[in-house]
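Just scan my protein:

——
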Amino acid sequence: MAERVGQGYVGQGLGIADLLAVLYFDEMKYDAKNLKWSDRDRFVLSIGHYSIGLYAALAEAGVIEIDELDTYGADESRLEMSGSEITPGFEMTGGSLGHGLGQAVGMALGLRLDKRQARIFTLLSDGELQEGATWEAAMAAAHYSLDGLFAFIDCNNQQADGPPARVLNVEPVHQKWEAFGWDTQRIDGNNIGALVDAIDRAKTVNGKPHAIVLDTLMGKGVRAFEQREKNHFIRVDASEWSALREQLESGMTPSGDERIS
């Protein structure tokens, strides 16, 4: 996707690909041909610039056509660099950060009022924890005991202006979510087995929303991206893409144990 335009949010997409694989191909219930199914689990992408990863997952899931991935970032494309509700399978527009958890809480409350058992899975970032609205939503979720709500917090230690510790420190993330009344775990977010186990454990806890803090590596699987000092937004010369793809494909072995067929 990014090769066609020479740039994109590749680091975030690679860093979160393991979580998306677990959710879309092991955990969530949805119908790729009926995206408005009332009893579907919802995935709420609060950090819209991570969309490149979600586009890939939706294509693999049969929600959008593989060929449409070639339009990433193009004028009038449904696959904008920061995703929106014009894309099939997107529950919200997440370009402006700090709003996803609030919308996820609203969806969870609505499902409860409708007496539906569907769940809400939302992804937000460590830098996004600098937004006050996130913590208002976190308080509300705990107050209303929304145990059908699962929040994944991507701690990749990088935001547009550098590491969060230098911009506005958000650690200790795990302890903060615990203090806000959430069932909380912190795991290696690039380990398939750890992701599956964490979700399974969270499902045994009733009466609390679930926060799973993910320590991830931006650009996971591509050494040149993993080692960049700043990889929030990546631009690559046309001559380099072939070598980068080789790096990714040569290392495509499952992380953790093999749980997803």
